[in-house]
């Protein structure tokens, strides 16, 4: 392992690699901050540039763009309540309340530190266990993946701070919205109302930007959002209180562990990781009463989980050649154009590429930290822009972002419709985060459910015969019951 | 000398007098050209388009820009191409799905794959392979069909989706071979290969290139390929035709434009593409990606697209029953 890391260091510390790593994280952060543009858009934008670089440098740069954009997404989540990715919608839950309490600086600093912590944790897991973990994904079958998705959905309904019932309702609505489009198993189009543009379903970014971004702008226009222009920008105000440092350590560790684990499962990755980590923390944290009202743990946990998962997600991508997400598919494309085919022999055939990439993650995460701590002051100043300038600008940016995905105006109108839906839901205290996670995980859960049933020729026992799926389904039930129970007691 | 200069002037004057629509075609390209790709960035078709775009930009002195328009089985991109101006500034990396499969699969497809387009040049093709898991214990096709006949409906096969070429081809194969297989559809090749490696499904019908690492590792046994001749990448694997099955399939790639494009533009593009396809790095990349190149005139390519759509139609209908 030490030899490998030494090789990795040698590759990662060449001047061009360091430079492109920095450039990648830098551009990634700035693209990620723009509402409507997430890691996928950022990597897609810079993919053509990578064609002109050697494969190691190309991948180092794109990886930098990827986690830079992930981090940039959390900035928009905290400041404006607009998550760049579904996983950062969990960060909104406590990050945005913190910003509204005038503690945006603290939230941003903790996000940077928690991301760094989770990222480094994930890197260490990768460096130590990648060859072992490579085969791990092959132990799981459709029934197990179904159970992982189910747990993710239960966790998403439990994270809701306005009651489990509301959370479950929102998750179910999300799952239903996710069924729009062509059904995988029959090829039949569902719930499209004959609209051609809906054949592939509603776009994720369209839903996320509508539910969060547009509805936030509508709420601010109503004057429901108090102005936080009074926050003073000074270094002292960015530092958490002494006891908060200690309180953040255990959640960061738990989040990183959960994140590293779920990152290695192709396709489940960050969304499942951050919702499960948040749901778990909400049960075990001594400070759980504060969750949803600006608890520092509520920012630390999803961010550390999310970033640990972002790193370990490279394991199945590179060693099995199977992309866990569209962003990862782009990374594989970047390798393929250089004639490197990801697969079981990648680590042995291209050790410099694999270990160089891992070590570059370390530098990339460091760059992120160095880059972003001085920038916190600037980000916080954004909030001093009067709302009547800020939010219209945000809506314009979001619309451009959404339009740029497929150059289709239909998407922009759909986004505005979701904005209206989000506004109505907000009025009645329904949170959009569980809806968004249901929208992502629901179709995946259905796919695995039906595949497992097809394979078992319709025998549902398959979910209980496999130990992995049986245990996860058990945990899901317990989690749901435990969360529902105390509320009943309080009422009685 | 004076005589020649006078002649030159005369020709120039004649040329100026003819300035009009013809000049547009002669000066093509004068501004950037879009190449629509019916897949998201990063896939193998996208990479082919980007590689060729770079080559064409170099040869014709204008930027060729790749624009990804994925969705609805490629019909989004093809519809946009049909509706674009036929001035040669909008092209598409045409391929099997939107032109040969979709018109039959989706009766509401708003274009005719032959009438509404100018098919400019054929680029090459990727072939389909039938891969069995080593755990199945069937080292060749004969052993497989024997096993499949012994237990009808028990063996599962994976394809990259309902109505995908793998699915359509597998149904045609099962009919020819007289076997009954159960279809497990996936959303694309990646997740299917994961389940194949994990031992969830014993057989897959998938494009050959992305399965070569698994074959090299001994994790997949190629039973047959869908080409007319054996592939350079799998020289020991027979074709379906060799084994007595009358089925051939190739996912072809080409460059197409809207209908009624000027013949001069077609000529310019054809020539530039022919040069590009013969350049060393394109040859090398296509070989590593498993794309089989082939030359075809524009007329031959148009006939080819028509024949492809016609031959796939009954198979697609059969698979969607």
UniProtKB/TrEMBL annotation, chain A:
Keywords: Membrane, Transmembrane, Transmembrane helix. The keyword Nucleus does not apply. Residues 18-436 form the DUF112 domain. InterPro entries: DUF112_TM (IPR002823). The keyword Metal-binding does not apply. The chain crosses the membrane at residues 6-23, 30-53, 106-130, 136-156, 320-340, 352-376, 388-405, 469-486. This is TctA family transporter. It comes from Roseibium marinum.
UniProtKB/TrEMBL annotation, chain B:
The keyword Isomerase does not apply. InterPro entries: BUG (IPR005064), Bug_dom1 (IPR042100). This is Tripartite-type tricarboxylate transporter receptor subunit TctC. Keywords: Receptor, Signal. SUPFAM superfamilies: Periplasmic binding protein-like II. Belongs to the UPF0065 (bug) family. The keyword Signal applies. Residues 1-25 form the signal peptide.
